[in-house]
Amino acid sequence: MSGLGLLQRNPYAAARAAAGALEKLTDVMKHDIAIVLGSGWAPAADFLGPPDADFPVTDLPGFLPPIVDGHAGRVRSVTVGERHLLVFLGRTHLYEGHGVEATVHAVRTAGAAGCRIVILTNGCGGLEGWHRPGMPVLIRDHLNLTGQSPLPPACFLDQTEVYSARLRALGHEVEPSLTECVYAQVRGPQYETPAEIGMIKTLGGQLVGMSTVLEAIAAREAGMEVLGLSLVTNQAAGMTGRPLSHQEVQAAGQAAAERIGRLLAEVINRL
Ligand code: 8IG
User: Fold this and answer.
1) How far is the CA of 25 from the centre of ligand 1 (A)?
2) Cα–Cα 20 to 30 A to 189, which of 40, 83, 148, 154?
3) Model's pTM, two decimal places?
4) Which residues on neighbouring strands pair with residue 1, listed in sequence order?
């Protein structure tokens, strides 16, 4: 199904249309918690429980097929106790060039489907000396370095607590060793130069990646509570003396799959 014209003309109507299609495909009238699984996190989906429905995201109007990752581009509906989870395996990135509306369509669809909580996950580079590949980190706050916004003109959204303190506290309960960091979203698709990493550090960024921030803004606009979870898959450019490798990034995700899958499942159990 396409629906890409509507997405550009009226992204909120497009989200309602996608939520309508989701209801038909899943037979679930209202979902409760949305989870977006980014780089390295897709294998964690299996720890959330067996899906009641599992289909390509392109079965929903307004969604694009994935351009990276074999595993990605699917949607699951998973029932855990009384709650219906809406799980997106993979996401549309800003660097794909389809615009901000396409990058936040999953979050807006989740809001239109009834979700009041969204868990945004990603793989990222770590800027702190103590960051190691395979380390999960809670997002405390963000830097929007994309120069873009998903919001309509003159929508002066409050951003004093984008990443819910309540949900971060639950994360600490589940895993006391979790730290909190500031995540910076850049457009990509190129990784940073060492000079750009120096700039981001000076600005207060501790994690760098190509997702999450615009989605978190759209989620707050929709009134959802946001939990941000990053998986450090590599040390940021210039920190190791070696170039960044996409293979290394994927290997870190594979190695951490069980740990971060259990972490996600435990957090969801406490929501
Ligand atoms: I995974 O080091 C992953 N995504 N911008 N920089 C940026 N994005 C990333 C990185 C990184 N690692």
Assistant:
1) 34
2) 154
3) 0.96
4) none
